Amino acid sequence: MAIDFSKETGIGSSGGAPSGSSTGSGKFSPSVITGIIGGGVGYLFGHWLGNAIASGYQQVSGSGSNDVATLLGYLFATVGWFIGLGALNYPLKKMLGIDPDFSEPELGKGMSKYFKYTVDHKIVGVQYLFGMLVYFFTAGLLALAIRTELLSPTTHLWGPDTYIEIVGEHGTMMMMMMTSVILGPFGNYMIPLMIGSKRVAFPRLEAMSFWFTPLSYFILLSALWQGGFQSGWTSYAPLSLQQGVGQDAYIFGFGLQGLSMVCASTNIVATIINYRAPGMTWSRLPILGWSMISLGFTMILSIPVLIDGLYVLALDRSAQTAMLYDAHGGSSFLWENLFWFFGHPEVYLLAIPGFGVVAEIIPVFARKPVFGYKTSAAGMIGLAILSFFVWQHHLFQSGMNPDMRPLFMLTTELISIPTGFIYLVGMGTLWKARIRLTGPMLFMLGVYFNFLFGGLTGVYVSDVPINVTVHGSFFVMAHFHYTIMGGVIFAFFGAIYYWTPLVTGYQLSEKLAKIHFWSMIIAFNSTFLPLFAVGLLGQPRRVFEYAHRLQHLNQWVSISSYVLGLSLMFFVVTFIWQLAVTRKPAVRNPWGSRSLEWAVDSYPPPQHNFRQVPVVLAGPYEYADPDALPIADIVMENKDRAPVGVDR
Amino acid sequence: MSEITEERPVVDEEQLYHEAALGSNWWGARIAIALSLTLFGGIAFAYFYLRSLNSHGLWDPHGQTASTLMGSMILALILLSAIVSGYGNLKLKKGLTLDWQVANIFSLLAGVFAAGFQIWELTRINFYPGAFGYAGVYVAFAPVYSGVILLGMYWLETLIARSFRSNAALASDGGLGLSRSMKAENFRSANEGFSYFWNFMAFASIVFFVMFYVL
User: Fold this and answer.
1) B25 falls within a domain
2) Burial A347-365 (b: 16+ CB within 10 A, else e)
3) Nearest-CB residue to B136 (from A15, A275, A330)
4) Alpha helices of A432-584 — where are they, by DSSP H?
């Protein structure tokens, strides 16, 4: 349908044909529309095939639920989606022997390029930004649905099944999204600019990494009208084996997100290692680069294990294997091990990029170098390595060998050391600094404030006695919301305010950013701080009824969550308003950053980033040194366009 | 801020990005190995975990395995494929592109047949997938194994197709094996990456053969 063997393909010529990206302008040029058509046709075919194969199975005829058809539907929908997008054109052309093609077709000025499979890392970054915002706000609405139910311990808005479906959907969507929330928009967009490259190592993998995410979003969301999955985001067996086809949506949606992460991390690792500009030594690599490379390696080594776990679960549900079923020689603990071998590194996959953003932005507004640059990089690497040795602490309560508990308690406590490095690096950078309290900087300081609660409670819950006591309670829920939402999401919004002038060419209002920050941090803390108390007082997670004595605290939390929702809505409205209506042009390098991404010729950056490959002369954080060279030669060429009044 | 006093060094952009592409080939292949290693590692973990737990004595109560004859044939084909491909690479280093092509077409066919036999074997197993622990893990392993082999063969096919398309143009410069052109260097680095990956797969095939048919 969308395979475009036009003259652009170069088939029949001597290789080196442009494209592979799909920016053709013909009537049937691949786009999100052809992707949807392809996905729809693929789903119908897969579902039909699954019914043809498995409708006679005793399991299927007995339950009326055909997991084979559902899973094959998703599988062929994925294939059809990518055919429709034109993503498979290049791999097919490679089978005809064309040489690798690094050219990028010229992109137009319109919006249509954002709805196509393109190989420009900046387009992919913007696609990710808006994609992740959709993910986040959908999951956020589900969170408000949870809090609305918890306004009363006895008067119910939802049935217990629906409630737990919403909880599962919220958790899964958030955890899937969070892994890409920094890497997707800012890693893909900024890293090539920061390292002085005109391109990325594997642009098609990068593009595919994004286009997996809309599909995984819709598949996961579809679980809601397929009975959901009451097993929650962790989907422990045997409950996950007993669910309807909504569980298949979880399996496939999460699996696609895993593939997305693998593609993105492969590209980012290879890009940072190989595409640094001359002079961009490892000791000059921006901290965000260190965080991305730590993240990339962690993903590469953990996500295939998640995919194994999902695959095992899918086979048990469809092909009638029994790997998670004790009575037939399997074990439900197999899932817990496979899942958490990914799941706990994942927690650090979320934190590391957030720390990277913070460490990147703070020196700009502190006008000081990163305190302990090497310590910060070492902390990220240490965090990534140690994250593979802690997963069993999730099994403290579920029946692991008690003799193993101290070992995993120790490894979990050890991880506070590299985390502490990173935290103290931030404090050291702020120490005696002339801090400019801009909107982005406030969000960065918010990360430190929130992470203090999340990190310190993390030390407690790593200890077996406390872990066993607060297991499955709102205390643990508050802990990880402080680390993830309080850390990563604050960093995400700060990054949006910081880099929007570069990405769009428009400056966001400082006043509106500060209103957003203060309303968000107050509402966030008002929402989650009481949940520590709620948890210690005995309220379990994932249960929609609770003791009457906890009603006032729950009402406080729910109302605070509405305020938090309003704060986020305020961001959406003002962000769109400023980009679509007021459109205040950005000044050159508005924050006075030394980093290379701001040295491009125009905002947004031109298609190929730099007119010439920059030669890096100094590090990106030498703010305090008046004799420091500019970061690269191209900065001097653009110095006449430097903003007035910024202390450099 | 200091002024830059030195002359701007000359950056050969084409050479810079050519070397970056070679490095990316190197890293891409190693990352593919790491991904495959952890993917198969998860299955190996499932195998040993369930085997050591032996829930209800049902890991493999009757000592049943998939067909050892078929398993041996699949292993032999993969090993043969890897060895012949390696032999072809030796020839390529001497500039004998045609030998490389013939060897790797053979290697490709052996790999495709191995994947085909693996799928065929899966349809002929003499136990129910959920009958016992071993059965489930084997049913999980076989599609992943054949799928990764087929992906590897896709990679090899693109190399073979590239060699046919490019070799004539490079013949005067020593062919794909000896030419100093960027095109040839890129080809050789991609081929070297595939070679590492395929040797890894041969090793993984031995390990899983021992697990599923010998232990």
Assistant:
1) no
2) bbbbbbbbbbbbbbbbbbb
3) A330
4) 439-462, 464-470, 474-483, 490-504, 510-536, 551-577
Query: pLDDT tens for residues B150-206?
Result: 999 999 999 999 999 988 888 888 888 899 999 999 999 999 999 999 999 999 999
Q: Give the Cα separation of A164 and A613 in Å (integer).
A: 53
Residue span(s) of chain A under CATH 1.20.210.10 come to 123-582
* Domains contained in chain B, number: 1
Whether ipTM exceeds 0.85: yes
- Across the interface, do B165 and A321 touch by the CB < 8 Å criterion? no
pLDDT along chain A (648 residues), means of 10: 35 36 57 94 96 82 84 97 94 86 72 90 96 95 96 92 94 90 94 95 95 96 92 92 94 96 96 96 95 94 96 94 93 93 84 92 93 90 90 84 89 89 92 93 96 92 91 94 94 97 96 97 97 94 92 96 97 96 93 93 91 91 86 69 40
Angle at alpha carbon of residue B26, lines to B24 and B29, rounded to 5°: 100
C-beta neighbour count of B93 within 10 angstroms: 12
In this structure, what CATH number is given to the domain that contains residue B206? 1.20.120.80
Contact A321 B20 (CB under 8 A): no
CATH 3.40.50.1220 fits A123-582, yes or no: no
- B137 falls within a domain: yes
Determine which of A293, A331, A617 to mutate to test the interface with B (most B C-beta atoms within 10 Å).
A331
Q: Do B49 and A330 touch (CB under 8 A)?
A: no
- Which residues of chain B lie closer than 8 angstroms to A314, CB-CB? none
Q: Would you say residue B208 lies in a domain?
A: yes
Q: Does A100 sit within 8 Å of B28, measured CB to CB?
A: no
Domain of residue B171, residue span: 30-214
Find chain A residues with C-beta within 8 A of B127's C-beta.
none
